Amino acid sequence: MRARIRNHPEVVAYQQTDLAMFGLTREQCARAVQYADARGRTFAGADAVARVFVDAGLPWSPLGRLMLLPGIIHVMRAAYRWVAANRRRFRGDPA
């Protein structure tokens, strides 16, 4: 995403971040990607991905807004949970 999105947020490993500053726990960060916006609000999983697009500005923000629509966000969340639960398959790790 960094190569395609000009206003991409800074990516920081949660193991090297003061999580309390964001009101997050290690467990939350291990379970799903987290995004803290400029106003200090945090989002997780599919919601975080959509918010990155919204905050990226044009041409990405319409896609992020679309992803947040009721119905679509529910599908996005289910897909995110499935990918997160099966991420080792995508990396080629043994089961």
Element layout with pairings:
Layout: H1 26-31, E1 34-36, E2 42-44, H2 45-56, H3 61-67, H4 72-85, H5 87-91
Antiparallel strand pairs: 1-2
Describe this structure in words.
There is one protein chain. This protein is mainly alpha-helical and 95 residues long. It is 46% helix and 6% strand. The protein contains 5 helices and 2 strands; from the N terminus they run αββαααα. It has helices at residues 26-31, 45-56, 61-67, 72-85, 87-91, and strands at 34-36, 42-44. It has a two-stranded antiparallel sheet with strand order 1-2. β1 (34-36) and β2 form a beta hairpin. α2 runs antiparallel to α3. The protein starts with 25 loop residues before the first helix and ends with a helix.
CA-based gyration radius: 14 Å
Shape: globular
Distance between the termini: 28 Å
* Largest sheet, spatial ordering of strands: 1-2
The percent range for helix content is 40-55%
How do the helices and strands follow one another from N- to C-terminus?
HEEHHHH
- Quaternary state of this entry equals single chain
The biggest sheet amounts to: 2 strands, antiparallel
Average of pLDDT: 88
- Uncertain spans: none
Give the count of helical stretches. 5
